[in-house]
Amino acid sequence: MSFLNEEYRDRGIKKWAGFYLSEHTAIQEKLSGERKKVNQQKKQMNQGEIEEVINESIVKNKSVAIQLENVDQNGLYYDDVVGHIVGGDELGIFINNTKVDFDEIRNIQFVVLKKWNNTDDDV
Fold it and tell me: Which residues make Cβ contacts (< 8 Å) with residue 77, sequence separation at least 6?
């Protein structure tokens, strides 16, 4: 035992670098991809157009994607709020669990959501 105590020098934390390097790299790539993603500004809709889409979405149970007026500190638009309209009040609507005020809506469009059990192999 005295031989190991005298000549062996442990690399300490450096030996653990291989265990988290691949995870760290994957996270960095994901963050880099998110930074490159830019949501384009959509057409500003007037109140009448917005109401038409909301009404049809409720009556026909269609999914919608809403671009909000909000932008981040770089002036870029956030991701659209996507889902079914599940309710509302005098100030706005609820998309799944998210409240969207009417005055925040820049653009609203119908979307087709892909179900988790749909595959391209189904006929």
Answer: 39, 40, 41, 67, 68, 70, 71, 106
User: Which of 104, 112, 111 is closest to 67 using CA atoms?
Assistant: 104
Q: Which of 84, 80, 86 is nearest to 66 (CA)?
A: 80
The distance in angstroms from the start CA to the end CA of the chain is: 69
What is the arithmetic mean of pLDDT over 30-51? 84
Nearest CA-CA partner of 55 in 96, 90, 85: 85
Residue 2, beta-bridge partner list: none
Distance CA 78, CA 59 (A): 28
| pLDDT (tens digit per residue) in 83-111 | 999 999 999 999 988 999 999 999 999 99
